[in-house]
Every structure is written in structure tokens, then in C-alpha cells.
Design goal:
By secondary structure, the chain is of the alpha+beta class. The protein folds into three domains: 1-57, Orthogonal Bundle (Arc Repressor Mutant, subunit A); 64-79 and 87-143; 150-250, Immunoglobulin-like. It has helices spanning 12-16, 22-31, 36-56, 64-73, 89-146; strands at residues 152-157, 163-169, 174-180, 189-197, 200-206, 211-214, 224-231, 244-247. Helix 3 runs antiparallel to helix 5. The radius of gyration is 29 Å and the shape is flat.
Length: 250
């Protein structure tokens, strides 16, 4: 990234994301102690990046351990081998001959069970891999947005206590919305996002729970971002009092 020295104030986001080349980073680091605005911007971008990364992280499904242990418990184990001694040799030999078919059957059953378990685990792994890939793409997109020279960040608190952040770029005409601490909506309800354009609310997507989502629509001409609780499937216009109306920086 090459910026003229007079544009040093625009490098705050790139500095926070460690996206500057060594010369630019050295110049900005020398400038930082003398510029309160840049120090504030760097602190905000670092905090926002951490919140966005945390919101995009994917936790394993809560029931994964329980399902795995239940599947393992259903696999029969082979009996232990006990060395034959003295007069018990014939009896042991007889029992061992009888045990061979049973052991073989148990082995087949175990193989089938483990094959099914392996297939299930493979599917779980594929699902987890796809979730991780989506999260990685999302973080890449957010990083690109944060590094935009005109990136702006604004924070707010919804009336239900949730902490929110909007990062926007007029040049990229994109923005992302992050929420933490969103209470679980009632059955049949969902959180819907809005863009306020001269007092007219336009649907901008949904955020079902804590996390980060891109906002739909023309960001460059929006003055604020709203959040409401709407019936599942969404509404063409808000039907409840906004939980949040966050003014975007000019």
C-alpha cells in the first residue's frame, strides 16, 4: 500500500490490521504519539476487529460430544484373551473355538458401526469445514472493509442491552453490522436490519443471533441503521418500535 505522507491520517485502519508496509508503518508509528485523532481511530479499529473476529467464530455443535459418545457406546468390544493353564486347556480350547464365530460377528458389527460413525463424522467434518470457510471469507471481507481509506466505525447499544457496531465505506458502498448480547427472540420473531434514507426505512437483512452480517442495500445514501424485532420472514416496513437507530458518520 503506497500513500502520500499527507494522507497519513487515512492509515489508521490499515495500521490496526497490520496491513502497512514497513516504511509506512514506521512513519505512522512516529506520527501516532502526536495525533489524538489517529490514536482514537486505531483503538476503535482494533476493538472492532476483535469483536468482529469473535462474532464470526464458529463453536462446535453442543450435541456433538453427546452424539459421538452415544455412537461409541453402541459398539461391542471383543472379550479379553486369557492364557490357558493346566487342566483348563481343553475347556479353554473349546470355548475359544466357540468364541471365534462370535468374535467374527462382533468384529463385523463393530466394523459396520464404525463405518457408520466414520461417515457421520465425515459429514460433521464437512459441515464444520464449510462453516470455517464461510467465516474465513467473512473475515476477509470485513478486513478489506476495515482497511478502506474511508472506513468509518460507529458503536451503539440497543434498548434490549445488545452492543452493536457498524463499519461502513462509501467508496465500497458496503457496511457490516455486529451485535453481541442479543437476547434470543421469541418464537416466530426475528431481528431485522434497516437502512434509513431520508426517513424512509428500507429492509437491509437479518441478524438471527450474535454475530456479524453484511448490510443489504445502498449504503452510500443511508443516514442511519435500524434494528427491530419482526415476525419470522421479515416485514416490508418496521412493525415494532426500533431497538436501535444508529446514525452513520458523514
Amino acid at each position: 500500500m503506497n500513500q502520500h505522507r499527507s494522507d497519513v491520517h487515512t492509515l489508521a485502519a490499515a495500521y490496526a490490521l497490520d496491513a502497512l508496509d514497513p516504511v509506512e508503518r514506521e512513519d505512522f508509528a512516529a506520527h501516532l504519539p502526536h495525533c489524538e485523532d489517529c490514536r482514537r481511530d486505531v483503538d476503535e479499529f482494533e476493538a472492532t476487529a476483535a469483536r468482529l473476529a469473535g462474532a464470526a467464530a464458529q463453536d462446535p455443535p453442543p450435541a456433538l460430544k453427546q452424539r459421538t459418545m452415544a455412537a461409541v457406546d453402541g459398539v461391542r468390544q471383543l472379550p479379553p484373551r486369557v492364557p490357558a493353564t493346566g487342566g483348563a486347556h481343553r475347556t479353554t480350547h473349546f470355548l475359544r473355538r466357540k468364541a471365534v464365530p462370535l468374535a467374527l460377528a462382533a468384529s463385523v458389527a463393530a466394523a459396520v458401526s464404525f463405518a457408520g460413525l466414520a461417515a457421520w463424522q465425515h459429514q460433521e467434518s464437512q459441515d464444520a469445514r464449510r462453516q470455517a470457510q464461510r467465516a474465513e471469507r467473512q473475515l476477509d471481507s470485513v478486513s478489506t472493509l476495515l482497511a478502506a481509506p474511508d472506513a468509518r466505525t460507529v458503536h451503539g447499544r440497543a434498548t434490549n442491552g445488545a452492543l452493536t457496531t457498524v463499519v461502513s465505506s462509501d467508496r465500497q458502498n458496503r457496511a457490516v453490522f455486529t451485535a453481541t448480547g442479543l437476547p434470543t427472540p421469541a418464537d416466530g420473531m426475528t431481528y431485522q436490519l434497516w437502512l434509513d434514507r431520508d426517513g424512509a426505512m428500507r429492509p437491509a437483512g437479518f441478524i438471527p443471533a450474535d454475530g456479524t452480517v453484511p448490510l443489504d442495500g445502498d449504503i452510500a445514501h443511508a443516514g442511519a441503521v435500524g434494528l427491530t424485532l419482526e415476525p419470522a420472514g421479515g416485514s416490508p416496513q418496521p412493525t415494532t418500535t426500533p431497538l436501535l437507530l444508529l446514525t452513520l458518520p458523514a
